[in-house]
Amino acid sequence: MGILHAGIVNQLPDVRLKAICEKEALVARMASKLLPTDISFYKDHLEMVTNEDLDAVFVTTPIESHAPILVQIAEARPDISLFVEKPLADSGFSANRVCEAITKSRGIHMVGFQKRYSPLIQRAKKVIDEKSIGDLMFFEASCFSSDVLREGKSWRVKSESGGVVLDLAPHLLDLLLWLFGDVESVSAIERRLYSTMVDDYVGAVFQFESGLTGHMNACWSVRGYGLPEISIAIYGREGTIVFSDDELRIEHKDGDGVQVFYNQSFDTSVPFLLASPEYTVEDQVFLNSIDGGTRPTPDFFEAAKVNLLIDRIRSISFA
Description:
Blueprint: H1 2-9, E1 19-21, H2 25-34, E2 40-42, H3 45-51, E3 56-59, H4 66-76, E4 81-85, H5 92-102, E5 109-112, H6 119-129, E6 136-144, H7 164-167, H8 169-180, E7 183-191, E8 201-208, E9 213-219, E10 229-236, E11 239-244, E12 247-252, E13 258-262, H9 277-292, H10 300-316
Parallel strand pairs: 1-2, 3-4, 4-5, 6-9
Antiparallel strand pairs: 6-10, 7-8, 8-9, 10-11, 11-12, 12-13
Helix pairs in contact: 1-9, 3-4, 4-5, 5-10, 8-10
């Protein structure tokens, strides 16, 4: 993810990559040979932000290190804006620590939940907000990948990864909170399918403060998924919305038929394409917010709700 964001921002207008903090010597040597010679390399992030005149820092380290790094940078350089890959932290407690530290910051802050910038998902949210399918009754949601299909030594199956609920599920949980608001109650189950140290599956049933109910399944041990895939079906009194990363279907009860949208249905052109367009869009939103002094979405306070919800899932789940 560090390579991805570095590649994107260094190609955007009026943006220049100035420094990289990389503790792995081999990776740093390889990067120094491939990147422009005016980019400085550091092994310590505090040394980097102290020595360099930086406007923003992208934190793309392992999840458990997010909070310590963000807090240290915010305290050392309260003028620097901060972007961190999802999730904000490894627990609700750590997320709250970050939010407390950032209250003293003058910079912009944002978490990389890029799914919010999918044109399909944004259209689905518009339909929900406009009540085009009437009052919502219930939903079904899933997030599947094929990352763990046997016992092994992958970093995903180590305790530090946090398991599927902390690594894969946050994208889906963020979308549910964004689409439906705050959760009133939740019950959950977690299971180890191949891993011995972390859970490979989590299922949860939610009731939101609005009264909406629904359930989700997240698993990284489902065969047939080249990339992680999210799917959400939302049932309203006047119609249904079903969307994935590639398709949105809207069916109206009153006989208007079925509307089908694909990514190609929207203008997804970006100045520089590396991976999906949503990554470029979120980086643009973050950087434009710095210039304009506006609040990007999700900021740290909004993203902390995902960590707090994960804590609730873990506290009441059973195997």
